[in-house]
Amino acid sequence: MEKTLLILVIFFNNFLVNAQTTISGKVTDRKGVPILGANIFLEGTYDGASSNERGDFSFKTSETGEKTLTVSFISYETYSKTANIYTLKNLKIKLKEDVNTLDAVEVNAGILASGDNAKVSVLKPLDVVTTAGALGDFVGALQTLPGTSSVEEDGRLFVRGGEAEETQIFIDGIRVFTPYTPAAGNIPVRGRFSPFLFKGFAFSTGGYSAEYGQALSGILAMNTIDEPAQEKTDISFMTVGLGVGNTQKWGRNSFSINTSYINLAPYQKLFPDRNQWNKPVQSMSGEMVYRYKTKSSGLLKLYGAFSDTKFDMVQDDINYVDGFRLGIENRNLYFNGSYKKRFDNNLKVLAGVSYTNDFSNIHILEDNIQDTENSFHAKVKLQKKVSSSVRLSFGTEYFLTLFDEKFNNSVFSYDFSNDIFGTFLETDIYFSKKIASKVGVRIENSEMLNQFTISPRFSLAYKVGANSQLSLAYGGYYQNPNNQYLKFSQMLKAEEATHIIANYQYVKDKQIFRVEGYHKGYDNLVKYNTAIILPTSDFTNNGLGFARGLDVFWRDGKSIKNTEYWLSYSYLDTERDYRNYPQSATPSFASDHNLSLVVKHFVQKWKSQLGISNSFATGRTYTNPNRVGFLNEKTSNYNSLSFNWAYLISQQKILYFSINNLLGTRNVFGYNYKTTPDSNGIFDRQPIIPAVDRFFFVGFFWTISDNKKENQLDNL
After folding, report:
1. CA–CA separation, 409 vs 406, rounded Å?
2. pLDDT of residue 620
């Protein structure tokens, strides 16, 4: 009996061995170089092997019929072949490089990104609030980057020779129509948004995606946090006001709210400025974000912001004996809703809407102006990953602005409706880990202007080394004229710009170096024939201009222990013949050279973060009527050194101090000339200077959270 069993075992073993099939082949890259250690296996089984130093592999299987053979190796695309098991012999398998790895090339000409999804962060969300001189404002921090100009008396983003209106701001892909708070002359505006609600941003100084339109110079796309880390409460006591914020989480939901009250009256009693304040600045503001994650991996976000700002002041003016009176009451409501979802078939859907209501009651001397603007934006975007090398994006959107202005209680009234329909198609093509391109087109139709425009966009990137790459970009851009023109004339066309950009970038070990050259051509800019904009002005699209230059950026977080710094330099050569210019000239907001240095150092022994920043710009043009010519002189150079100090009283309590323009440098932004000459035919003048030489800020910030580790260092 035992002998019989032994014979049966041997028989069946021989049968199984003879029934097994050998699967074999060779694994190489596309150039034929053998790949060692590739993982080869039959899906749904434990049968498989690894390739040797020659790329060869071989293993046996008892499976039969049609099966799928899978080959995978890090930094290469996974290979799959479905066939009858008996045909999987002597295979020649060539793996393609995975173009989506971290070391792959990235199309980035003109784009300065930050956040968790950015491969390279030239500026982090933390930098917004720890950069000396920025005062916790997104725009203030962005002005330390190349491609921007220092226009301190205004405060908005001026990008590569473009006016501030030429750079648009988006939250979660949806347009913000009135992103800045109101302000008086020589007092810079601020962005309306608190940095702690955002996880990152992409700041484009040109050559941006076909997804974005109605911006001649650049875009700032900010993304709110998808899910907060934990519940917490933030309390702030400041020399200019107070604030409180709270975050709650439950199930698939989370909610964050931030409110603040600002009153400059106490500060101005301690540190008077050059203005006479009938009513110092007071403002109430609040923001909230509600998030809901669906069971099917969708994400709904609702963002809302409200602000109410009031002030009344008299500024010294050489042409008004009693000074120039300006009073503003502004109420702004912004709502943004977005939804995104990724499907199993590599399809991603993003949809959103925004609504803005902005009302301003403006008192200028003895006149009163009431401006009401209601704006709406709806957008749908589809992204499809056709393969690991090709991605398609398609979207459509609609913009609507309703503007109404009443002058002196409706003695005169001006209004218009500006609606734009846009659609875009764009493809990202990764030829390899070294070469990638982005090709797109944007189409817009403006019903008010009765104009149809087509804007081609193209970018190309090539990886020249392990840590460096070259990029090129070209694009056409259109933007409808500003409200100040459209309220008087709707017989205009969209203004136009063309961008050409060349970029080199090097990134390694917390070090970033970028250099970028560009040329922008302007056409169809608005011109008018009066000293100031009037209802009787003759408006045309006969204006044109150019801007060209070089931007350099260096950031280093490696060389000095506990220290991070960056250096930005921009050269700008620009001229325009627009507005009421009698000839082509460099605009008064543009500086030939801009230089910024930011240094942040953490002193462990003192439990302190110290920071300095210095901004320098060469003089800007102005017109001296005592000489022949237009914009015929330049101001002296601009320079401002700022300092901040954040001291950790305990892990969740911070004492913060900052001072802007530490040295009290007297910066002159231009000159205000008398409208009539004196007896000798000379026009007297008055320098346009900041309201204060220095600005001091002191604050106490307290965070309450379960882990007792969170603090507001990233909000200062």
Report:
1. 6
2. 95
Q: Are the C-beta atoms of 360 and 332 separated by less than 8 Å?
A: no
Contact 593, 617 (CB under 8 A): yes
Cα separations in angstroms, 429 against 277, 439, 618: 58, 8, 42
**CA-to-CA distance for 591 and 569, rounded, in angstroms?**
12
Is residue 532 over pLDDT 70? yes
> In the prediction, which pLDDT does 227 show?
82
b/e burial code for range 493-509 (CB count within 10 A of at least 16 → b):
bbbbbbbbbbbebebee
Looking at residue 349, what is its pLDDT? Answer: 93
Q: What are 249-306's pLDDT values in tens digits?
A: 998 999 999 999 999 999 888 888 889 999 999 999 999 999 999 887 889 999 999 9
Token digits of residue 215: 């911006």
Q: Which amino acid is at 138?
A: F
The two tokens of residue 471 are: 């990029």
Q: Which residue has tokens 């090539």?
A: 462
Question: Nearest-CA neighbor of 302 among 338, 333, 332, 334?
Answer: 338
Phi, psi (rounded to 5 degrees) for 455: -120, 110
φ and ψ at 583, to 5 degrees?
A: -160, 170
Non-local (6+) Cβ contacts of 684 within 8 A are 318, 673, 674, 678
Distances (CA, A) of 419 to 302, 337, 401, 408, 669: 24, 20, 6, 28, 37
CA distance 356 to 225: 21
Phi, psi for residue 107 in degrees, rounded to 5: -75, 110
Q: Are strands 685-688 and 79-84 parallel, antiparallel or unpaired?
A: unpaired
Task: For residue 506, give every residue at least 6 positions away whose Cβ sits within 8 Å of its Cβ, in sequence order, or none.
Answer: 465, 467, 468, 512, 513, 514
**What is the average pLDDT score of the chain?**
87
| Residue 359: closest CA among 325, 329, 326 | 329
CA distance 350 to 396: 11
* Whole-angstrom distance, CA of residue 337 vs CA of residue 180: 20
Q: Are 555 and 512 in contact (CB under 8 A)?
A: yes
The label of the residue with tokens 């237009």 reads 630
pLDDT tens track for 228-254:
878 889 898 988 899 999 999 998 999
Of the ranges 100-109, 476-485, 694-703, which one carries the lowest mean pLDDT score?
100-109
Local structure of residue 344 (DSSP, 8 states): T
Q: Within the chain, what is the greatest distance between any pair of CA atoms?
A: 136
Handedness of CA 104, 105, 107, 109 (dihedral sign): positive
126 backbone dihedrals φ, ψ, rounded to 5° = -60, -35
What is the three-class DSSP state of 190?
Answer: coil
**DSSP label of 180:** B
Residues 515 and 221: their CA atoms lie apart, in Å, by 22
User: Does the pLDDT value for residue 466 go beyond 90?
Assistant: no
Torsion of Cα atoms, 10 then 15 then 16 then 21, to 10°: 140
Q: What angle do CA 517, 435, 100 make, to 5 degrees?
A: 115
pLDDT in tens, 467-506: 888 999 999 999 999 999 999 998 999 999 999 999 999 9
Give Cα 379 to chain centroid, integer Å.
18
